[in-house]
Write a structure and sequence with these properties.
Peptidase_M20; Succinyl-diaminopimelate desuccinylase; Aminopeptidase; 2 domains; binds zinc ion; metal-binding; 442 residues; alpha+beta; Alpha-Beta Plaits
Length: 442
Amino acid sequence: MTHELEQLFEFLRFPSISTDSRHAGDVRACGEWLVAKAGELGLSAELHDTPKHPVVLARNVHQQGRRHVLIYGHYDVQPVDPLHLWTSDPFQPEIRDGRIWARGATDNKGQMFAHLLGVGKTMAAAGDLPVNLTFLFEGEEEIGSPNLAGFLEQNRELLACDVIAVSDTGMVAPGTPTLGYGLRGITCGELIVRGPARDLHSGLFGGAVMNPATAVGQLIASLHDADGRIVIDGFYDDVRPLEAWEREMWAAVPGVSEEDFLKVTGAPSLFGEKGFTPAEQTWARPTAEVNGMGGGYQGEGSKTVLPAEAMAKFSFRLVPDQEPGDIIRKVKSHFEKHCPPGVTLEFIPGHDGKPYHTDPHGEFGKAAQEALRKSFGQEPVLIREGGSIPIVQSFREILGADTLLLGLALADAQIHSPDENFPVENFEAGIRMNQALLEELA
Ligand SMILES: [Zn+2]
C-alpha cells in the first residue's frame, strides 16, 4: 500500500459521526489529526471551536499579488447503521476490487484528503504553491453546517477569496471528469399527527375514531399526482426552466441513462416526473420525498392497536430560483388543507439550504475544465448535481466567491449507505487534479 493510502486509512479510522453526541470526542480527535497532518505537509493549521464541532483552517504563506483559492471539505461522516449490511467494518478501511471500503471513503474524507495530499506534493516538489491557499474543513456538514455560516461571517476578511473549490459531488461515469455548476437546495420537515389520548383497542374503538397512521398515509399520498408531479399549490412557481444546451449536453452524458439508473438503484423500474429524463429529474427538477414514517406497533406478530400518534419525515429538493422558506410554508399549508378530520397536525420545519447555480463558461469555470482535462486526459462534462451543499450558497453570500464543484464520487459509491466505497484510481486522480487546478487557477 502506498504511503498516501496509509494516511487516508488513518483518517478513515476516526468514527467522526457528527449527528451522534457520543462521537463528539471522535469528531474533535479527527479534526486535531487533520491539523497535525496539514502541519506535516508544510501548511500552518489550527482548530477553531464552534458551538458544536470544530473547523480546521490550514494555509500556506500568503503573498501579495497571487490569487486566493479556498478549498472546502468536511471530515464528519454519516452514521453507519444498519451495521450488519456492511461487508467489512465501516471504520476499518479495506481495499477490495480496486476500491477503498469505509464510511467517509467518498463522502467526504477520500475526496478532501486528495486535495490535501495534492497540496503536500506540490509543496514538497516546489517549496510553495502557485496561489495563496486556504483549506477550510468542517465537522458539521452531515448535520446541515449549523455553525459554518457564522464562522464565515466572523472570519470574513481572513477567508475572502477569488474562488472556491469543493470535491463533494459526483462524476457521471468512471473516468469521465465532471464539473458541477449547480446544486439543488433543500428544505426538511417533520409531520406529527395526533388522534386519541392514548393507543386504543382496534376492535372496541376502530371505525369510530380516525387513525393517525391512516391520516399520515393520506397526507403523504396527497403530495404527488399519478404523473409524479408535485401538487402543492405554487410549488413550481419559481422553477427556472432547463436551457436547451443543458438538455442537449445531458442527453449525451455517459452514466445517466435509464439503464444506468436502474442498475445503480436496483429499483424494479424508474418512476419520476413525466417529460424529463432521469438526469433532468435529479439535477434540475424539485422533489418531495418521505424519508421516514412511523406509528403504531412495529414488533413481531400482530397487535390490534389504533395508535394515538403517527409521524413522517420529509425532505424537498429545490432548484433555482425556489426559496426554502417559501416552499416550507407552502408545504405546511398543503398539509393543513389536506388533513382529514378527527386528528390534529403539527408540522416542524427542519434544516434548509438554497439551491446554487453558476456559469460554467466563466474564467474560473474554464480553468477548472482545463485542470480536469489535464488530470484525466478526457473532455469534461458539465452537469448540475442532485444533492445539496447549502454552504456553497453561503460562500457566495458571505465571501462573495463562486464555487467550482470538482466531484470524484461515483454513482455506486453508496454514500450514506452500507458499503460506502471510493476507487483508488479516483483518489489518485484527485491528487493530480488538485495540482493541475492550482496551476490553472494561478
Ligand atoms: Zn454526505
